[in-house]
Amino acid sequence: MSQSKELQDILAALKDGGKPRALATVIEARGSTYRRAGARLLIFEDGSMVGGISGGCLEADIFARSEEIAAKGRPVVVTYDHTSEADLIFGLALGCNGVIRILVEPLLDRSLPDYLRVLENSLGLRQPAVVAVIVRSDGNLSSEPGERLWLCADNTIGGELGQNPSAERIVDDARAVLDSGRSELKTYRDDSGELEVFVEAVQPPLALTIFGAGHDAIPLADLAKRLGWHVTVVDGRPAYVAPERFPTADAVRLCRAEAVPNEIALDESGAAVVMNHNYHHDRAILAHLLRSPVRYIGMLGPCKRTQKMLEELAQDGSNFEETQLNRIHGPVGLDIGAETPEQVALSIIAEILAVSSSRSGAPLKYREAPIHG
Length: 373
Description:
Layout: H1 3-16, E1 20-31, E2 40-44, E3 49-51, H2 59-72, E4 76-81, H3 85-90, E5 98-106, H4 114-125, E6 129-139, E7 148-152, E8 157-158, H5 167-180, E9 184-190, E10 193-202, E11 207-211, H6 217-226, E12 230-235, E13 251-254, H7 260-263, E14 271-274, H8 279-291, E15 296-299, H9 303-315, H10 322-325, E16 328-329, H11 341-356
Parallel strand pairs: 11-12, 11-14, 12-13, 14-15, 15-16
Antiparallel strand pairs: 1-2, 1-5, 2-3, 4-5, 6-7, 6-10, 7-8, 9-10
Helix pairs in contact: 6-11, 8-9
């Protein structure tokens, strides 16, 4: 599960009702673990849960611990060390050779904590944000575990941790995390003691723009939305952009190919798939996409079709650099033997995910490096 999708589900669950008990967040994962730092699990008093911190092996234990943690009203860091032989005998016998630390915080009422409101707003604006939370405080420091500082894309800073003597250093690290998009566990020391702080990057969901609203675009939009992506479908044919054809899409836009540059916004972290099944429309949109910052350009159809478009664009005076052309993936999708629209959608989504994660899309059995960096 993508962490932005998980966070969206948790925010929605907190608003839908029910009495929340605790929120568990993975703050460190070393070695072989199923989930990475930033994964979350929301626990309700009735035993229901949203999200996940493992493959299902830690949730029951965290739920059992959450009752006492909520009763005491103080955050607790729980550590599972599966590198120890003792874990196989006395522990949960998970079989994962790794260490995972989880911050479990009580939720004392149904209102969203301030930092979750900030993240909800950032996700709504499709902007990244950073939240730093104390997970350990030693010495004579006044700050306690659970105190936070947040940094938004517009440079807004908030949270009680901003009053800590180490706040300036934390903000500097938060800005670095905002730029890199990689969460970090940091330690800050001074004469009064030591703080351990989880500085988490929270990214908006990947934006997928589908140019073409034919029947084969429907499973692509649906699968992308199941992953929590922000989905926009664009077509110049009024009958094709009826909202009921794409009920899960975030936006369905009526827009002719020549108007796309002025009406459809694209960002550098997003992906676009061209599947109009109209050669001239696809060529016009391809030219715009190559001039845009979008990271991934998927072209439905054979390689020769895309190559012919590029040759015609060059004849018209539109020449593109190799770095621009390298973003083209045509034929779009991974080679998994897909034939039906649903299978093609799966191959496309898999390739977009691989590219956005800077992965090859090859079978994991051949990967020599760790699965998680």
